[in-house]
C-alpha cells in the first residue's frame, strides 16, 4: 500500500488572504465538492483531485449535506478520502459544510430551523468522520424560519464545539444584515458569506458584497465559471459528457443560450490575448476585487483543476481590458 505524502512546496504554490476581520487565511482558490464527488462519480478521480489540490496549496474544501448525487454521498466520499490519505493533515485543512436544502422526508428535513441545523450537522459529522467542521453555514433562508432562530442555532453549534466558525449563504441583503447583527451580538460573528458571483451573474455587486465587507465578513464566490459557461467547453455547442448534457446537475441545455455563447466567444478572444484560458480569466476577474476572499471551483479532472489554478499567475487587468469586459457583458 502506497502512503500519500503531499508536496513539501505546496504552500509556495498558492496565494492566501485573511477572511474578513479574522485571523483565518483562505486560499484564493478553494475546491468545491458540489459536483463530481458523489456516489455516481469515479472515486479514484475524486481522490486524485483532492490530492492535487492539497499538493498545490488548496487548503479549503467546501461541502454541503445535500451534495451528491445521492445527497450526502459527497460528504461520505470526502470522509473516506480523508481517512485513507489525510489523517495526519487535518489541522492543515479548512473543511466547510452547510445545511438548509432538502435532505430527508417530512417537515424537518430541509429548512433553516434549529431542528434541521442541529440534526444536519450531526449527520454531516458522521458522514465525514470529522470531530468538527472549520466552517458551518446556513445554506439558505427558507422564507419561514425567523432569522433569530437560525442564527442562534449557528452560534450554539460553535459553542458546542461542532464548528469553529459560521457563515451564511444566499441570504437576501436585508436578512443578511440582520444575520450579521445577531451573530455579532451572540459573540460568534459571521466569518464568511457565500454567494454566486461570476462575469455572467454580478447581482452581489449592488448590495451583498459591500455589505459583507462593511461588517467584516469574508466573501467567497461559488459558480465563478457560471457552471462551465465561462470556459471554452461550450463555445461550439454542448459536448458529450459536459454538465449541460447530463440528466443530473444544475446546468441545463436550455441555459446554453446563443447570447451567452456569443459573449463567451468574445471574452475568450480577450483571454487568449492575455495568455490565459477563458476559465482562468473568469476566475482572475472575480478575484480582482479586494473584498473577495476566495473563489470555489469545481472540477471533473486533475487537468481541469490544474488549468483553473493557473489563474493565479495573471490576476491583473488593465483599464482597457476591464472596459472591454464591461462592454461585452453589458452589450
Structure notes:
This protein is α/β, with parallel strands linked by helices and 331 residues long. Helices cover 37% and strands 15% of the residues. The protein has helices at 43-55, 73-85, 114-128, 147-159, 173-185, 208-215, 258-273, 278-287, 302-309, 319-330, and strands spanning 16-18, 25-27, 29-32, 60-62, 94-99, 133-138, 163-169, 190-196, 218-222, 294-297. The chain has an eight-stranded parallel beta barrel with strand order 3-4-5-6-7-8-9-10, surrounded by six helices. The longest helix has 16 residues, at 258-273. It starts with 15 loop residues before the first strand and ends with a helix. The model has no long low-confidence stretch (mean pLDDT 94).
Shape call: globular
CATH topology of one domain: TIM Barrel
Main structural class = alpha/beta
Distance between the termini: 56 Å
CATH architecture title of one domain:
Alpha-Beta Barrel
DSSP, total strands:
10
Q: Kindly state the mean pLDDT as a whole number?
A: 94
Strand arrangement within the widest β-sheet reads 3-4-5-6-7-8-9-10
Helix content: 25-40%
Which consecutive residue ranges, at least 5 long each, have pLDDT under 50?
Answer: none
CATH class of one domain: Alpha Beta
Strand content: 5-15%
Compose a concise summary of this entry.
This protein is of the alpha/beta class and 331 residues long. 37% of the residues lie in helices and 15% in strands. The protein has helices at residues 43-55, 73-85, 114-128, 147-159, 173-185, 208-215, 258-273, 278-287, 302-309, 319-330; strands at 16-18, 25-27, 29-32, 60-62, 94-99, 133-138, 163-169, 190-196, 218-222, 294-297.
Amino acid at each position: 500500500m502506497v502512503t500519500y505524502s503531499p508536496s513539501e512546496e505546496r504552500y509556495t504554490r498558492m496565494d492566501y488572504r485573511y477572511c474578513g476581520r479574522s485571523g483565518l487565511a483562505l486560499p484564493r482558490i478553494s475546491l468545491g465538492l458540489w459536483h463530481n464527488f458523489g456516489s455516481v462519480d469515479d472515486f479514484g478521480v475524486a481522490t486524485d483531485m483532492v490530492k492535487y489540490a492539497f499538493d498545490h496549496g488548496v487548503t479549503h474544501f467546501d461541502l454541503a449535506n445535500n451534495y451528491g448525487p445521492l445527497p450526502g454521498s459527497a460528504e461520505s466520499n470526502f470522509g473516506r478520502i480523508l481517512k485513507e490519505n489525510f489523517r495526519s493533515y487535518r489541522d492543515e485543512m479548512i473543511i466547510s459544510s452547510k445545511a438548509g436544502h432538502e435532505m430527508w422526508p417530512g417537515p424537518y428535513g430541509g429548512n433553516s430551523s434549529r431542528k434541521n441545523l442541529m440534526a444536519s450537522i450531526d449527520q454531516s459529522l458522521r458522514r465525514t468522520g470529522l470531530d468538527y467542521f472549520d466552517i458551518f453555514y446556513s445554506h439558505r433562508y427558507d422564507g419561514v424560519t425567523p432569522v433569530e432562530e437560525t442564527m442562534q442555532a449557528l452560534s450554539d453549534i460553535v459553542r458546542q464545539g461542532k464548528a469553529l466558525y459560521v457563515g451564511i449563504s444566499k441570504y437576501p441583503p436585508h436578512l443578511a444584515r440582520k444575520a450579521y447583527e445577531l451573530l455579532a451580538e451572540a459573540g460568534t460573528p459571521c466569518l464568511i458569506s457565500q454567494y454566486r458571483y461570476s462575469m455572467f451573474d454580478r447581482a452581489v455587486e449592488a448590495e451583498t458584497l459591500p455589505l459583507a465587507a462593511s461588517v467584516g465578513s469574508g466573501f467567497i464566490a461559488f459558480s465563478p465559471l457560471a457552471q462551465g459557461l465561462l470556459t471554452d467547453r461550450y463555445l461550439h455547442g454542448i459536448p458529450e459528457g459536459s454538465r449541460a448534457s447530463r440528466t443530473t446537475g444544475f446546468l441545463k441545455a436550455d441555459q446554453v443560450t446563443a447570447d451567452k455563447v456569443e459573449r463567451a466567444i468574445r471574452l475568450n478572444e480577450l483571454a487568449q490575448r492575455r495568455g490565459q484560458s477563458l476559465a482562468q480569466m473568469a476566475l482572475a476577474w472575480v478575484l480582482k476585487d479586494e473584498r473577495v476572499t476566495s473563489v470555489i471551483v469545481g472540477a471533473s479532472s486533475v487537468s481541469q483543476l490544474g488549468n483553473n489554478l493557473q489563474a493565479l499567475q495573471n490576476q491583473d487587468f488593465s483599464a482597457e481590458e476591464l472596459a472591454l469586459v464591461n462592454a461585452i457583458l453589458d452589450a
